[in-house]
Each structure stands twice: as structure tokens, then as C-alpha cells.
Amino acid sequence: MATTSQPLRGKTTCKKIFWAVFPHACFILSLVIYAFLGALMFSHIEGTREVTVSEEYTTFLQNLTFLARKLSDNVTENDKIFKDDIRELFNTADPVWFISPEDRWNFFGSLFFCCTVFTTVGYGNTYPVTRTGKYLCMLYALFGIPLMFLVLTDMGDILATVLSKSYNEFRKLQSKILASKLCSGSTCSKRNELKSRAQSKIVINEPLTIMEVLRSQSGMRQRPVKYRNVELFEMLIAREKENTQPARNKSMERWSSCPELAREKPVSRVIENFDKIGKELEKLDVPIVLMVLVIFVYISCAAAILPNWEKNMDFQEAFYFCFITLTTIGFGDTKLEHPKFFLFFSLYIMIGMEIVFIAFKLGQDRLIILYKKVISFCAEKNMPSKKIYPK
Fold first, then answer.
1. What whole-number distance in Å separates Cα of residue 371 and Cα of residue 343?
2. Burial annotation 141-167 (CB, 10 A radius, 16+ → b, else e)
3. CA 93 vs CA 58, 63, 86: distances in Å
4. What's the rounded Cα separation, in Å, for the pair 326 and 330?
5. Quick one: which H or E segment has residue 175?
6. Dihedral of the CA atoms 71, 77, 78, 82 (nearest 10)?
7. Which of 2, 103, 281, 374 is the most exposed place for a label (fewest CB within 10 A)?
8. Positive or negative: CA dihedral 359, 360, 363, 364
């Protein structure tokens, strides 16, 4: 029996782990599939579009030719005027004119664009040009942004659980260290002995029958017969009510005694996991200073790695770029030369957005508490003082 029970226990534990991980994997996998489908769609629509020469592009080339002819090699006093005219001219230029659609809207470029859409970053340097691409971009964002927020909330529960447990373990360890310093050896040994004696006295008894209860009542015999009959009658009525209650369902008894034998129990657990999304994030209570420190360390690690493939960035520029990305601001002033390499950094973006989201949630809770204190203080201050009239 022991040899057959061990494989069954191993299978049940594997099933429990599978059904516990299944909701989280389902959300992440659906987001990945959604991003890949969007990349295929936008690469086909925007990458295969026909390049037409617009009137704005023709006017731009004419003005550029005019400025080039106007410049003379022997006149140096017009250099500043020429630079200002060139700057104004290129500010009116559209970057789409100088990049072929096949190069920008390949699979990796389209995938990078999809990530910037449903993460609400939106750098602005890559955007759809065709009317069909614009309509599909709105529809894609309409379903992609809620899916991304769902993934953020689900992963936020995991990170909140890890952070809260780590913080609580750190506090417990800190309290133990302080207790060991403050506590002397003799007093600690006496406390441990008292605890061991108290634990040894704990005895778990099974529920007694009515007759055993009556026999155990030493004061029952000393009371008058009238009171003994009343108490005995009440006990018999309680036992009769317990016996006349409807019998419980056998499946419920089997579920309470052995959960592994219940049918469709893993499915119900998965449904409960879906219903509990966001609950752990609401329970999180860690210092806001700790979250700010975690964000600073997290962005600093990426800022030290990112300049290895983005040669136009240093540590400060990469730190600024990561902060703008994780906070979903996305000005677009800092451009990436190799977006396909940064796509492998997408896991970093998602986890970083989780951390920033948790920090914003904690800051929101602290602000609500502060507003409550201020409003209650102002209300108590403006309350009219009670006047005591003489009798």
C-alpha cells in the first residue's frame, strides 16, 4: 500500500501545482499570442503599403534644393542663417519619408509597436500610416490594453505576496535578533521551560456522549432533582435536534475528509483563483520608501545593461529611458537603434511596470489616509464647541 500511495501523492501534488500555475500561465500566454498576431497583422498591412510621393515631400525637396543653391562657399556670415533655415525645414519633415516600410514594419518592428500599444507607452516614432492600419490600431488597443492590465494585476498579486512575505520574514528576523540581545540566558531558558510545560499540558479529547457528560458533572448530584431533570431534558432535546438534521451529501463528506477524491475540484480551484485576482495586492502593506528603493535598484540594473547594445546611450540616458518606459509616459525623445534586441527585454518591462504599479498603489493608499486625516482634523476644528449651561 505504501508503494502505491506514493505515486498517487506525487500525481496529486503535480496536479495541484499545475492548476495553481494554470491561470497565471494562461494570462501571459494569451498576451504573447495577442502580440504575435498583432505583429503579423501590422507587418502585412503597413509593411506592404505602396510608397506614394506626397505634395509635402515634393515641397520639402524643393526647399532643400533652394537652400543648397543659396549657400556659397566664400560667404561665412550666412552660416547661422543657413543653419536656422535647415533646422526649421527638417522640423517640418516626416520621418516616414526617409524610411522604407519594409525596414520599419518587419516582424520585430511590428512586434515592438504592438508592445508599445497595449502597454500604453507609445513612443511616437513608430505609428500606422494607412487608414486601415489606424482603424485596426484602435481596435487592437481596445482589447489589448484590458488584457495587459489583467496580466499586470495578476502578476502584481504574485509580486505583492513575495514582497509581503519577504518583508514579514525580515521583520521577524529583526525582532528575534533584538530579543536575543535584550534577553539574558537564564530568563530565556525559564521562558522556554514554561512554554514546553504549557505545550505538554495540551490534550485533545474526543467529544463526549450525554451519559459521559452527566457522569463527569460532579456538581450534578449535589443539585436538587428538579434542576437535574431540567438540564437532562435540555441535553436530550439538543441530541434529538442533531439526529433529526438532514443527512449531508456523501460527496460533501468525501470532499471534507479527502479533497483528492472530489470530482471537478481542480476546476473549482482554478475558478477561485480567477476570482481572487487583485486581492493580494490590496492587502500589501510595506513602507513606500522600500518600494522606491526597489524601483531605483531595478532601473539602475537595466541602465547598466542597456548601453551595451545601444551605443548612443550612457547610464544617465538609459536610466531616463527606462523610467519613462516603466511609467508608460513614452515621450519618444530617446529612440532605440536596435528595437529587436530590446524585445528580449520585454519581460523586464512587464515586471518593472508591475513594481511601479505597486508603488503607485501604495502611494495612492498613503494619500487617501493623509486626506482622511486632514479632513477629519478640519472637521473637528470647525465643530462648534459644546456649551455647558448651569442647572
1. 41
2. beebeeebeebbbbbbbebbeebbeee
3. 11, 11, 11
4. 9
5. helix 131-182
6. 100
7. 2
8. negative
Counting other chains too, the contacts that 260-265 makes at CB distance below 8 Å and 24 or more residues apart are 260/8, 260/12
Q: Are 196 and 202 in contact (CB under 8 A)?
A: no
pLDDT confidence bin for 271, thresholds 50/70/90? low
Query: CA 109 to CA 100: how far, in whole Å?
Result: 12
Q: Which amino acid is at 238?
A: A
At residue 120, φ and ψ (nearest 5 deg) are 60, 25
Residue keyed to cell 471534507? 256
- The grid coordinates of residue 296 equal 531605483
CB atoms within 10 A of CB 15: 14
Is the per-residue pLDDT at 283 higher than 70?
A: yes
Three cell numbers at 116?
508599445
